[in-house]
Amino acid sequence: MKFQYFFLAFALVACGPKAENTGISRAVELALSGRAAQPEQVDPETWLNGAEGVLMAIPTTGWGGLLKSIGQNGDRVTWAGMDERSVTTQSGIVVATRGMGFDLYAADVDGTVAALAGGPTEYQRRFELLEGDDDIARAELNCTFERVGVETVTLATGQYTAERFKEVCLNDLIGFENAYWVQEGGKMIQSQQWISPNLTHLTTQSY
């Protein structure tokens, strides 16, 4: 399976009653434009070399590609592309990015993880954001979490049924909405997650 094929597969995104998945739609456009994190002729299976992979994109910057797992510490996994930019997730939730410019330095995701497991649906989230001079800005937001419904998600490996959840977080200066598609059993197969005011959302899809 060649690089061009798996990016076209990334273009087949979730289908459901709502069509506001603008971040994922934008990821399709950047993927088809070829502005990606890997050279066009790379065979993804050869590059993964048995490691787990995930498709990620930041539509606002035009960056995107196939990342592979390069390390794990408990339930935290660090993913990296050939350009050495990386994303760290905890149970599928983004906790840090590196090399993206205005990076997410760190994030508290315990409330989101608990809500996905059936816990409280109102909680606070804390973010540490890298600014232009490597200063760290901190933000605390109040969040709500709700089930949207069951949808069909199309991945590179086929179509899957997943439950969609919506997370809305607000404070006096920042507001955003995240979306998570989770299969029965708890596996997150697609998401659209806010990472910073400058980069806005990062999208993920299982590979």
What's a quick, concise take on this entry?
By secondary structure, the protein is α+β, with helices and mostly antiparallel strands.
Q: How does this model look, in words?
A:
The chain has 207 residues and is of the alpha+beta class. It is 15% helix and 50% strand. The chain contains 4 helices and 12 strands; from the N terminus they run αααββββββαββββββ. The protein has helices at 3-10, 22-33, 44-48, 110-116, and strands at 53-58, 63-73, 76-80, 86-90, 93-98, 104-107, 122-130, 136-155, 158-170, 175-182, 188-196, 200-206. It has a 12-stranded antiparallel sheet with strand order 5-4-3-2-1-12-11-10-9-8-7-6. It starts with a helix and ends with a strand. The model is unreliable at 1-23 and 31-36 (pLDDT under 50).
Overview features:
single chain; 207 residues; alpha+beta; 12 strands
Taking Cα atoms only, what radius of gyration do you get, to the nearest Å? 16 Å
Low-confidence stretches: 1-23, 31-36
Largest sheet: 12 strands, antiparallel
Number of helices: 4
Class per helix and strand makeup: alpha+beta
Q: Into which percentage range does the β-strand content fall?
A: over 45%
Mean of the pLDDT scores? 84
Distance between the termini: 12 Å
How are the SSEs placed, and which strands pair?
Elements: H1 3-10, H2 22-33, H3 44-48, E1 53-58, E2 63-73, E3 76-80, E4 86-90, E5 93-98, E6 104-107, H4 110-116, E7 122-130, E8 136-155, E9 158-170, E10 175-182, E11 188-196, E12 200-206
Antiparallel strand pairs: 1-2, 1-12, 2-3, 3-4, 4-5, 6-7, 7-8, 8-9, 9-10, 10-11, 11-12
